[in-house]
């Protein structure tokens, strides 16, 4: 029978590698397919202990009691895989005495799922999408308004595949992805730092897996969309003309300390090869920051209790079109520096 070959899964900062996993036993003999395995730029340390036992809930995901994580004993649906990854994330945060994040099945999971689907379908890994989108743009499109930082893992062979609409996810693959992220070593430990960022309150999780074929055993790709929910914000336009003034308004706890405007190039479709050449995505710095009265600021930010409001132009010094990003900043408890708590995008023409 033909030998089924597996892909190698990498994390964004990782390298692609190949290995084999234990074969299954089909009716007509040993399955000679090579299974997909994960590989990172740094050899991942062994995952933290996961107790193998029957799941405590009927949904088969898992529960965590007394600080112990229970591994499901069967293949997982997409929803169950998200719950299992959430439990592993919170296990890892708990190990550093951090509070848990909550699974947000709204915009963060919607945007994360679209990105995981895109990566698994086209065979690439990165924070840019095939349409040229970046994480905060995808979250904005999905209706989100919070700050977002993304972790991603996938294979990078640049082959187009058909996705499985109802994949069965091996719990070991969920563990492998989280282990690669969490067990990174400095200085290449951006994914670990993201998991352990104290400001994170929620996470969206994307899970995508191609269909099994006669020559290939499928494995999943994942995205983790960590968000920081500290306010509510009035809607912004999806598109605008250069120089248009927009009203940035909302409520934040703690109170907003600044509003920023950033510009990057407008998104354009990227080839799969180009996508695989891009790795880390630094959140762009604002070209303009607007502060409350009492600070040196071109336009003062009006802050009354937890409410804030300002009207600002969408134009940099060159009055160039592009993707403009609107950020809201605050000082979070235990942090004296100003932290971005909201980041939304507007296509400016």
Query: Strand count, sense and closure of the main sheet?
Result: 6 strands, mixed
**What global shape is seen?**
globular
Number of strands: 18
Spans of at least 5 consecutive residues whose pLDDT stays below 50 are: 13-61
- The fraction of residues in strands falls at 25-35%
Overall SS class: alpha+beta
Distance between the termini: 56 Å
Number of H/I helices: 6
What's the rounded overall pLDDT mean?
86
Oligomer: single chain
Q: Kindly report the spatial arrangement of strands forming the biggest sheet.
A: 2-1-7-9-8-6
Radius of gyration: 22 Å
Helix content: 10-25%
Q: Could you characterize what this model shows?
A:
The chain has 349 residues and is α+β, with helices and mostly antiparallel strands. It has helices at 78-95, 107-122, 135-141, 171-182, 190-195, 272-277, and strands spanning 8-11, 37-39, 51-52, 64-65, 68-71, 102-103, 147-155, 202-208, 221-228, 231-233, 239-240, 245-252, 256-264, 288-290, 302-304, 307-313, 322-330, 339-348. A hairpin with an 8-residue loop joins strand 17 (322-330) and strand 18. Helix 1 (78-95) runs parallel beside helix 4 and helix 2 packs across helix 3. The radius of gyration is 22 Å and the shape is globular. The protein starts with 7 loop residues before the first strand and ends with a strand.
């Amino acid at each position: 029978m033909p030998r089924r070959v597996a892909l190698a899964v990498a994390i964004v900062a990782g390298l692609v590698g190949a290995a084999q996993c234990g074969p299954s036993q089909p009716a007509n003999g040993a399955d000679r397919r090579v299974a997909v395995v994960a590989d990172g730029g740094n050899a991942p340390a062994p995952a933290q202990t996961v107790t193998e036992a029957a799941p405590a809930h009927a949904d088969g995901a898992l529960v965590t009691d007394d600080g112990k994580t229970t591994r499901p004993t069967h293949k997982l649906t997409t929803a169950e895989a998200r719950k299992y990854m959430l439990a592993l994330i919170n296990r890892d945060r708990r190990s550093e005495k951090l509070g848990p994040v909550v699974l947000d099945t709204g915009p963060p999971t919607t945007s994360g799922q679209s990105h995981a689907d895109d990566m698994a379908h086209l065979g690439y890994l990165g924070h840019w999408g095939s349409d040229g989108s970046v994480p905060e743009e995808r979250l904005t499109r999905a209706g989100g308004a919070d700050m977002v930082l993304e972790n991603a893992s996938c294979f990078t062979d640049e082959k187009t595949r058909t996705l499985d609409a109802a994949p069965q996810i091996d719990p070991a693959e969920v563990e492998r992805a989280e282990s690669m992220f969490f067990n990174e070593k400095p200085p290449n430990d951006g994914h670990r730092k993201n998991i352990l960022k104290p400001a994170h309150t929620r996470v969206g999780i994307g899970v995508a897996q191609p269909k099994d074929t006669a020559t290939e055993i499928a494995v999943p790709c994942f995205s983790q969309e960590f968000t920081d929910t500290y306010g509510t914000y009035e809607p912004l336009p999806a598109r605008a003309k250069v120089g248009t003034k927009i009203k940035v308004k909302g409520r934040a706890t703690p109170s907003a300390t600044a509003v920023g405007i950033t510009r990057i190039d407008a998104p354009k479709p990227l080839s799969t090869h180009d996508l695989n050449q891009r790795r880390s995505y630094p959140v762009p710095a604002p070209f303009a920051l607007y502060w409350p009265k009492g600070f040196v600021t071109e336009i003062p930010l009006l802050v009354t209790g937890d409410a804030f409001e300002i009207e600002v132009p969408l134009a940099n010094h060159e009055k160039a079109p592009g993707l403009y990003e609107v950020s809201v900043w605050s000082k979070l408890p235990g942090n004296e520096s100003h932290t971005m708590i909201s980041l939304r995008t507007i296509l400016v023409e």
